[in-house]
User: Fold these one by one.
Assistant:
Number 1:
Amino acid sequence: MSESKSVLQGFKDFLMRGNVIELAVAVVVGAAFTNIVNAVVKGVINPIVGAFGSQNLDNYKTCLTTCVVDKKTGEFTDGIYILWGSVLSAVLTFLITAGVVYFLMILPMNKWKERVDARKPVDDSPAEPTEVELLAEIRDALIAQRNGSPSASSAPDAVATVITQKSQS
């Protein structure tokens, strides 16, 4: 019984995280945005394309093999054909969606982040040594200690200093 409570509690904790709720909101807004983009494609793009041919991009297709066309409806009844108009419509929908997301959401957010970062004070403190640099210092100190070089007397102090620096970062 306690295991099922812990599983349910874990599921509740998962649902109450901010990321899950934000993702759910994004999906709902994305679904509503899809309707807007589809309306733009059907109401604006398709009529522009229709000036050169059919308003319905799904009507654009190419036959790969000998296709039989129904004389009354004008549709292919036999053969293999590629629906390149549907692909074109999907590509246009994607490009419009990507453009709107970039120009109305990503670009303004990046500009805002740049302004916020510009207001932050600049950190002029020296950069912390990297892990590789610390390991190189330890290696050099140990080699100097083993070889009994003139700096060997300070080698244990150097190792202790490097280890202290590493533990503080």
Number 2:
Amino acid sequence: MIDTRFSTALQIVISVAVNEEADIRTTSHSLAEGLDTNASFVRKLLLPLNEHGILVSSAGGKGGIRLARPRGEILLSQIYASVTGDKKIWATRHDIPHEGLVGENIGDLSEYLSERAEQAVVEMLGSVTVEDSVAELRRLEAQKNTPTETQKGPPGREPGNPS
């Protein structure tokens, strides 16, 4: 089964950032609706995000979920570490016969590759902030909403106007 904790936590944190900018209150219920999941799953992910100083939650009618610090200071690697913990990118099989070149060494090779892959992921995520991510989402949205030359039609004519 593919682990979706990071991608879900990323969506949670970015949703909170965008909602704060728009002065919209964020709750576990509103996040759950946006994720098409239940609020208890969201609250389960909120716990480590709160513990690691990424989000702050407050109860009550005026409570909600907010960023714990400016979005330009929150690295994606921090979100990743908070929700994945010690879980590796992939698990190494240790229940195989340890005979011959492959059997004797495949576990060590797999561990080595897993550690390098994990390091590369953390380094890449460590160079991107929540602020960068919001800007990239806006760029992608603008790109989708900008007609291409083929959608615009020939120069001098408006789309849908044959004259």
Number 3:
Amino acid sequence: MSTPASHRADRAPVQQAALLAGLVFLVVGVLGFVPGVTTDYGSLEFASHESGAELFGLFQVSILHNLVHLIYGLAGLMLAGTAAGAYSFLLVGGAVYLLLWVYGLSVGHDSDANFVPLNSADDWLHFALGIAMIGLALALSRRGTHTGAR
């Protein structure tokens, strides 16, 4: 009989990392819609550099930005079901975050092209997330994939 603890033990480390990342993205996506946790909540825009809302008073957010975090979170949870899916989520997701970092550095924060919106704190968080996700994919895909993980 499979118990929750034994089911967790059946997961490859890369699956556990993708599951954790997915949960974090879900929580961040939800928190982006919580007044108080998101400062200047009344200035939350759908998608515009003019959205003055900031998660934790630091990371500029919009409805679109929050929805992307929620979608990323759901994707992480779904793809964590297999080692190959988890690896893809971390690797491709990390690459997307590095592209978003480059995009954030390339467009002016007050430009109409900054539709997500992004500020300097977002830019550097995206860099760290990209490096961490790719690093986890590469480091953890070599471990535990022969243990019968799904």
